């Protein structure tokens, strides 16, 4: 029988063993990762004789005295992780417990490994989404043939620019690239706490030995683009990236991604572009031959009517403050 556990009640050794043994295993769901991106997280847990057999992490937030769920930064997917095949009725029981204890979720993303099971659950609040995956279990020559014509052209252009690829353990240049070239495009801006979280997460991933940080350098040695990749559970996650105007013009990120693909070609891994459903970004990632991988996002609002009205008014005010294009 699944039950809700407070953060202090979670046996993190048993938790990580369950995630590791699950068919859905992802780095996002490991206890140390959650401790960084969602401090105080709770969970729904099913266990037998102290062994966790099925778990669901809950990224809990509080506002106006109300506990609710919100997908954390640097964590595209979560969901249900089970040692045995996840059954629709089992998933439904987990969702029922969540709804009983939390009256609102601004968006909880289930992992791609849950998609088939959730199709069997009649939940009108489940909204289809997708990321983009590239199977790397072919030779580099075959994978390169999957690039579209523009990507091949831009890759050759990047090589003509004589960009160099450099590995690093210093994430500050990547953060600076993002601050100076991308942050102003993000709706609502980027809080300083997000950069602090990224630093903590990067440090934790380095300690676990699962990260790769790469930059492109121009002929003068200046950094023009960078990408952070996480390796876990058969996936290579393109977790964070940025480029300046020079890096974009010289196709630095194309060179970085091609390098990752080339070096990992012929392995049973999947490159997860962690793609948002934004046409221009998804189109760039699809140009490498990646294909959509579906998952579901769960949104519902069972708050008392006054709080629902307050939330809608707040959203309208925020929208009214957006600049007119």
From TrEMBL:
It comes from the Bacteria. Residues 155-265 form the BioF2-like acetyltransferase domain. This is GNAT family N-acetyltransferase. Coiled coil: none annotated. GO terms for molecular function: transferase activity. InterPro entries: Acyl_CoA_acyltransferase, BioF2-like_GNAT_dom. The keyword rRNA-binding does not apply. It holds the Pfam family Acetyltransf_6.
